[in-house]
Amino acid sequence: MIKYIKDTDFKYQEDILTHLRAHNITHSPKKSEYNKFFYVFDGKLLIGALHSSVSWDWVGLRKYFYKDLEVLELLLSSLCDYYQDSVSGIKAHSDDKSRINDFLSLGFIMNGIMPGTKKVMEYYYADKTILDIASNSKYKIISSDTEIKEYTDTFLQEVKKYDLINGNLDDPMEISFIALDNDGFAGGILGELVEDTMYIDLLVVKEEYRCRGIAKKLMSLIEEEALKSNVVRLDLGTAEFQARDFYKKLGFSIVNERKDNPKIPPAKPSLSSAINDIS
Fold first, then answer.
1. What is the CATH classification number for the domain harbouring 22?
2. Which pLDDT score, from 0 to 100, does residue 277 have?
């Protein structure tokens, strides 16, 4: 008999990750995820930096800062040169419209807007699939496969300064529920609560327990918990080979979609962001 528990100590988080990764690998090519760091200098002064990573054939911008548009253009130009012909594109997202406008001015295309709530701002998604950004900046730029420690403090201080100005310092509160069969792991869910919104970060049910209503029950439990915290919206990201149709049946609607994420010829799977207003 399946029983459900609230995992307050997150002791089953590794089980969730292990089984979700195993499922994803069977449906997408196993490629290494790698990082690249870029640093821009005016003399000896660090005026821009970017930490990028590749996952499912797309470059994500993990963290970055830039003094002005010229510096951002130089960072992205170097990013394009490095990843040319090896990825499907570069993705950028932010709740800062002026920052997204900087990306749009450099050739990114808006690919969806997550509507805001009373406490959470609109969230913007922008992509660039043709890596053709060029720069004639005279600033010095260097790149590295690993973080350069002597610049870490300045980099993090600048990122924190930006977050402080834009009110992005809230740490999410994690909530998890687990399905157990005779104390053995059958499935689990992990959500992150920020203000009045909860992001469904991870959801998995072991293959032998699927089609038994476990995923639906886990979603119900985390939604009930979210409502206790006055959450008005759930949001998540999902692909066709994960559970997109399942989420649609639960009332989620797609707000943006990214093709070739991951790239598996001849199929063209896409990664979608979806929301469900629950208030």
1. 3.40.630.30
2. 82
Strand pairing category for 89-94 and 58-66: parallel
List b or e across 76-106, with b for residues whose CB sees 16 or more CB atoms inside 10 angstroms. bbbbbeebeeebbbbbbbbbbeebbbbbbeb
What's the rounded Cα separation, in Å, for the pair 129 and 222? 36
Question: Contact, 93 vs 59, CB < 8 A?
Answer: no
Please answer whether residues 116 and 122 qualify as being in contact, where contact means their C-beta atoms are separated by less than 8 angstroms. Answer: yes
Are 90 and 127 in contact by the 8 Å Cβ rule? The answer is: yes
Residue at token pair 């548009």:
69
**Tokens coding 202:** 């991870």
Judgement on whether residues 79 and 185 belong to the same structural domain of the protein: no
Of the residues 131, 165, 199, which one is the last residue of a structural domain?
A: 165
User: Block means of pLDDT (10 residues each) for the chain, length 279 residues?
Assistant: 96 95 72 84 98 91 98 98 92 95 98 90 94 98 97 96 81 94 97 94 95 97 95 88 86 81 54 74
Split into its structural domains, the chain has a count of 2
Q: Are 198 and 192 in contact (CB under 8 A)?
A: yes
Q: Global pTM?
A: 0.86
What's the full length of the chain, in residues?
Answer: 279
- Expressed as residue numbers, the domain containing 122 is 35-165
DSSP 48-79: EEEEEEEETTEEEEEEEEESSHHHHHHHHHHH
Helices (H) and strands (E) in the chain, counts: 6, 14
- How far is the C-alpha of 251 from the C-alpha of 241, rounded, in Å? 19
pLDDT at 165: 87
Same domain, yes or no, for 159 and 174?
no
Could you check whether the bond before residue 172 is cis, i.e. omega within 30 degrees of 0? no
Residue with tokens 């590794």: 14
